[in-house]
Amino acid sequence: MLDVLGASLLFAVCNVAWRYGEGPTTEIVFVRAALGAVLAWAIARRGGRQPWWLPLRTRAGALAVLTSGAGMIAAGTMFRSLDGPLAALAIACTPAVALLVRDRVGSLATAAALGSSAAAAAGISLAATDAGPAASIGAGAVAVAVAFVAVEVVSMRSSQLAVEQGCDPAAVVTASMVVAAVAIGPLAIAQGVGAGRSALLSSLVAATVVAVLGTLGRVLRTVALPAAGVPAVAASQQVTAVGTALGGVVLLGDPLGVAGALWGVLAAGLGAFAVVAGTRWRLRRDGRLARPLDLGLEPAAD
Questions:
Q1: Residue 116 falls inside a structural domain
Q2: Which of 105, 126, 140, 143 could form a disulfide with 109, with the two C-beta atoms 3.0–4.6 Å apart?
Q3: What's the CA gap between 232 and 221, in Å, rounded?
Q4: Do the domain assignments include residue 269?
């Protein structure tokens, strides 16, 4: 439970950091993926676990790697296209979409996850109203946000299945970073040629923050997916959404009214409750789901 909620807070900081820096989005995503791959590889190597490429040899592992990499690219694009309170709307929708996944977490956790999405949607709608004309967004940004939600849910489910089948969480995260870096690397290099030194420096700072905290968050979340369940982990995104919105208000001057903030806090509370209730329900039914939490996984069979 603490793994999931801790990861949510790390993601909130990352989402704000995505918006910092003057360089092209592709550069920040590329550097974040490259540095994240090194960090995740170091985590896996220190534990003496699987090589980073091994998850690619299983169907669930390959799907987890590809969707996680795509989700990271979509996240970087989305958070640099939308204001904090509005970008949080995409995160807030994730628990409701995750309920479509066939992964049971119990009635209490399910109700809390659905309620968290409803509360978050109400709060962020108020935030958009407070923002006025500044809240207007383009169709491209909306499309990226919708894609982010879909890819995020598929990524969580496939990562859960991969870990349950014996893939190491750190190896899954490492491989996803490598895939993302390879996919966006050529475009990032091409766009970075004409960028100034100050833009490159600010991009590097933002990418480093996102790489360190985001990679740790992804490893923690991937480890906890079998025990907590996809809908409950998705509900923890409400904690991330509140942190993202508040970070945008405090650090970047985004507008957010009192009513919107209170709805957001309610959504975060319901999301945290869903994590606790879902994890307890699943572990009571099958204690073996807690085995990945000790990070002592055996290598997956060839």
A1: yes
A2: 105
A3: 11
A4: yes
Which tokens sit at 138?
Answer: 């383009």
Distance between CA atoms of residues 181 and 35, nearest Å: 9
| Tens-digit pLDDT profile for residues 141-150 | 667 677 788 8
Q: Give CA–CA dist 166/62, Å, rounded.
A: 13
- DSSP string covering 69-106: HHHHHHHHHHHTTS-HHHHHHHHHHHHHHHTTSS----
Provide the angle, in degrees to the nearest 10, between the axes of the packed helices 258-285 and 237-252: 150
129 in any annotated domain: yes
Is 78 within a domain? yes
Q: Quote the number of domains for the chain.
A: 1
- Taking only the tens place, the pLDDT of each residue in 96-147 is 788 888 788 889 999 998 888 888 777 766 665 655 544 555 566 667 677 7
Q: What is the DSSP string of the chain?
A: -HHHHHHHHHHHHHHHHHT--SS-HHHHHHHHHHHHHHHHHHHHHHTT---TTGGGGSHHHHHHHHHHHHHHHHHHHHHTTS-HHHHHHHHHHHHHHHTTSS----HHHHHHHHHHHHHHHHHHHHHHHHHGGGG---HHHHHHHHHHHHHHHHHHHHHHHHHHTT--HHHHHHHHHHHHHHHHHHHHHHHHTT--HHHHHHHHHHHHHHHHHHHHHHHHHHHHHHHH-HHHHHHTHHHHHHHHHHHHHHHH-----HHHHHHHHHHHHHHHHHHHHHHHHHHHH-GGGGGGGGT-PPPPP-
Q: Does the model's pTM come out above 0.90?
A: no
Q: What is the domain extent for residue 145?
A: 2-294
CA distance 168 to 148: 24
Q: Are 262 and 119 in contact (CB under 8 A)?
A: no
